[in-house]
Amino acid sequence: MSIFLRKFASNKSPSIQSSNGVIGKHVRLEEHGNTVFCCAFSSESETHEIELATAAYDGTTRIWDVARCTQSTSKKSKKILKGNSGGVWCCVYSLNSHILVSGCSKGTLCAYSRGKYQILGRQDLAHGPNAVFSASMHDRNDVLATGGGDKRLKLWRLDDADSATPGISALSTLSGHSGDVVSCCFKPNTDLVVSGSEDRHVRVWDINTNECLQTLIGHTAEVCACSFDRDGSMLATASSDKTVRIWDSRQKNRCVQTITGHKASVYSCTFRKCSYDLLASASQDGSVAIWDPRNWKCCQVIRQHQGEVVGLAFHPHGTLLATGSADMAVNLYFVRSDGPQEADYVDFAGDWDKDEPTSPSNGSSPQVPGSSSLRPASGPMVMEVATEFSPSIRPIDDELDPISSFNGRAQLGKQASVVRQMESLNSDDPRLDLVSPDVRKELEDELALQQIVLEQAMERKHRDGWKVRDADPEDVEELRVLLKKFYLEVNPSKLTRIEAIVQDYADRGGGPTEREALNLDLRAVYG
């Protein structure tokens, strides 16, 4: 299923705020056919130059020769990997970069040998049938951590082609989160790994004992990304609450800074781990911000993508920054080797209200078009009133109801909403034997379609910060109709109670609390 391609309509051109800042000109790589969720650089070796891997929801992981892409006119990927069975959420290179691992929406982990990029091994149900959202490698051995839609963090061992059993083997499962684990990272020079979850918590684990040593509480929405600085003293976590929090391990992981400025969910954050440290953050609002860890001031704002920015990675030498976006492109920015100067600092919050430069720094990025000229890759058009950095036109799947969202506000499409309310009713329900064959067939078909919509919607909501907040009148009406059709034939005496429950849900606004109460009430009526 296709993730929407979000385009942002604005009267402003793409820009790199702070002309003399640490970020300079960029090159744009355009081959993916859907949202680019992850970027990962390899290390350098005697036999291989540094490469960039990019994972996208088009089901592919692409390998780029960094030197060729930045030093010549050729902007073509050198390899296209298609071992995953669904949209690819994450990718990471092993310690020595001999292996590349990718994880996808259908729970598959694939390990590829670097060079020819042949499949060394795969785990088809790494997190059951749930998505593999994140992956991180230990910096001293071949232990891989993955976070998934089963609310667990898992540890794996990677063995390269020279070992007796090349591929991926399971080590242990770390349980404790009450929501999907959407981010993870190892602490440098230790056996500690950190996980961020939809439950809003950050957990610190010891991989030797599999124990949770500490839970970091502070974010008010899911934790989309986490990253340590080069010595492991500072941990940055990015969240759908529009903030990045800094936790200091020298102060028992106390939160020492809350970074604000982004206008929507912060999907990614990463430290530059060489020479002068930098922190980069990427957001649903279409911007990438660069922060100075010496004072946590913003020293640059980049708006070159035409959609949400999700993937983010610094080159191992710190000279390049890669970004992946819902506009299906990967941007490679040249990064200054020294640290920010006083003149580089910008007012990120105030910057949203200022006029920006009329052209990008190098002219290589296409101009942000007006809403009338935006063309999605495929699918019917959905038009909305265009405001600054709001979705203007997006392609949607021809067969499925879309989920629309912006800045954390969302509502389920009609079909998905009905299933959400009727989660205790499914095609195996024995009460379907009580209804006529025609009605049963209609219900079974409807429920099967809606379950597919729901599962795919839940898969993609994690990175985009979609939350169920508002009741839609059409949702409520469709729920009412389907429930009535079912219960008229099963037990008409329950209809009055069911309609009262649904009406009460609509009257109270249909927020998360009311939604849970609705589910409990319906379960009681179902008996």
Automatic annotation (TrEMBL):
It comes from the Eukaryota. The keyword Ion transport does not apply. WD repeats lie at residues 29-66, 125-166, 174-215, 216-248, 259-292, 302-333. Residues 358-375 have a biased composition (Polar residues). Residues 345-378 are annotated as: Disordered. Keywords: Repeat, WD repeat. PROSITE patterns: WD_REPEATS_1 (PS00678), WD_REPEATS_2 (PS50082), WD_REPEATS_REGION (PS50294). The keyword Repeat applies. This is Guanine nucleotide-binding protein subunit beta-like protein. The lineage of its organism: Eukaryota, Cryptophyceae, Pyrenomonadales, Geminigeraceae, Hanusia.
